[in-house]
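note to self — DONT lose this again. spent like an hour looking for the file last time. sequence + predicted structure for the chain T wanted, 412 res
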Amino acid sequence: MAGNSGPLSPRAKLAVTAGKAAAAVSRAAGRGSGSVIGGKVSLRLDPDLLGRLAQHLDVVLVSATNGKTTTTRLIAEALRAAGPVVSNALGANMPAGITSALAGGSEARYGVIEVDEKYLAGVARDVEPKAIALLNLSRDQLDRAAETRMLAEKWREGLSGTKAVVVANADDPLIVWAASSSTNVVWVAAGQEWKDDAWSCPSCGGVLQRPGNDWGCAECGFRRPQPTWVLNGDYVLDPQGSAWPIHLQLPGRANKANAATSAAVAAVFGVPPQVALERMYQVQAVAGRYDVVEFQGRQLRLLLAKNPAGWLETFSLIDGPPTPVLLSVNARGADGTDTSWLWDVDYTRLAGHPIMVIGDRKLDLAVRLEVAGLDFRVCESVDEAVGMAPAGRIEVIANYTAFQDLRRRVGN
């Protein structure tokens, strides 16, 4: 846990002020929130600023392939029961964005920080967190983030010896392997819908056996640890065996898993499960995700899915056929430029839905849907797609930059 830091040094104050000015200029120019450029300017002036800004905070870091923005928001809501919170709620999760967020938290008691998977170990060294939440690892942006086993090994090495309480998903073998180097781990049975990145043992490379909800390696003995927190339908069981109801406005099984992990994290900070879960109900949407908006006289529900595991979870929460579905895929730098992951998504789950396709890589997606034997239409814009969609609320599923494009166009 970080100690009390006292006032910032003149250099740190200058760095914070310059960063805020750069962010304001960026916003005025219509270039976004300015958090990234502001953080870059601040860190250029004081490379140690991130650690300085976190010294007075009890920090929890949240990292995963999927669900980290939502889980960060849920934990932040839970910890507000115990005091003021500063958080990078909009998902700017690399060091520059984190620095910008913490620069606005001088009066906060807690820092709830989403961290990009690639930067987790470095940020953990800088901010000395009290807790670290590890949710899942699966293939995503392979051109940037590398293979999942390599990423798990970097986490394992980087978190070895950490003083933080590591709250980790016992159902994901890659997460268990990454967390097992830590001395204080709280295991959560949060489930794992997507298993295609975790059939081989991360410890020895052997084949994992998966009887029921269990998993283990017969060759080296690496196996699922015994969880102390368990997601059980609409309840989370705490270490004493008490069942607490999960009532969320956010849809889907994945968000119940996020809530279960968030309750376990909140307990590390002394917030009881009942209080934590009641506060999580306040969250209706997360950075536009799950929002229902009006556009051209139609209702659109906006859903983000960035990789095969995320698309699988999203398909499970959309309304059934004949609800129209609008799909949008880009392959810009923030998405990862390799679209081969489209072939790992089981699009046959959309059978029976009227499907419209847009985005920079709409033709890549169209080929994938054609092979899946689905009926779809390729459209030039969201306006055209909405105009030809049959009656009913439209489920809109998009990857990262496509999602941002859609939010700007539909006014959310």
